[in-house]
Amino acid sequence: MSTSGQTYKDLAIPYFKEVFECIDAVMVKLEVPYYLIGASAIALELLKKDIKPSRGTKDIDFAIMISSLRKFEAIVAELSTYGFHKVSAPWTLFHDKYNVVIDLLPFGEIEEEFTINFDKRKIDLHVLGFAEVLKNPESVFVEEKLVQIPPLPGMVILKLIAWSDRPEERDTDLHDILKIIEHYFDVNFNEIVEHHHDIFPEDDDLDQLRIAARVLGRKSSYYLNVSEAIKQRILKVLDINIGDVKSSAIAKQWVSEKSWDLAYAVQILEDFRIGIMENLE
After folding, report:
1. 56-60, 235-239, 242-246, 255-259: the lowest-pLDDT one
2. Statement: the pTM of the whole predicted model exceeds 0.70
3. HEC profile of the chain
4. How many domains does the structure of the chain reveal?
5. Is residue 159 part of a domain?
6. Structural domain of residue 168, as residue ranges?
7. Residue 225: per-residue pLDDT
């Protein structure tokens, strides 16, 4: 368990306190395990090192472990008493007063082939990786509330899977992965120095981003080792985006945010893959 002195204000997310307290009250009442995921969870993890959020968001994502759509509908009904109402996507709710969107992403026994079918129109939600990543969450205190979030390597896996499902509309996933890589060396400095010193070059040419990517790969390999479906998906995404530098969608997105060339952006991905392969069973 991790503890911190973070406040809701530190997150810089409008009405996060109000929304989180509603979610917490409903999930506790209905005895549903829930987890904060997405950009908000990443922001919480980085705040441990006083790294402030780089982008605001009005979307707050939660993963909820449930067994049936009936349970999901009970959660939605309960949240409606707090002013939330459903919108077009069946897993999305909106609060008019707070002007906040929340996504409730169900996983667990409700899954069938890593997919949730919500109604007769076959509106599907793909939840590959949730069960594995959220099996061992980190717990963080924000003021008096305890929040469960995925560990950073798990967040990278979830973000890569989400992006690969809908790359045309999920650029923020690549932004979030890049943010994790940029700060991972500082956030986990002691562990990296103690347990991953073999990565450090013999000369003084230390590239913290490349080291961070490789360590993230080593730690992310756990999820590939426990799930063949995750392994196939992640390795396919990496192979596609590393094999041809000029056509790498991930590298191009990162280059649009940083003053890198494509070759360097692909090298970061390659280091991540090297780390995975070092610990792959």
Report:
1. 56-60
2. yes
3. CCCCCECHHHHCCCCHHHHHHHHHHHHHHHCCCEEEEHHHHHHHHHHCCCCCCCCCCCEEEEEEECCCHHHHHHHHHHHHCCCEEECCCCCEEEECCCCEEEEEEEECCCCECCEEECCCCCCEEECCCHHHHCCCCEEEEECCEEEEECCHHHHHHHHHHHHHHCHHHCHHHHHHHHHHHHHHHHHCHHHHHHHCHHHCCCCCCCCHHHHHHHHHHHHHHHHHHHCHHHHHHHHHHHHHHHHCHHHCHHHHHHHHHCCCCHHHHHHHHHHHHHHHHHHCC
4. 2
5. no
6. 164-279
7. 98
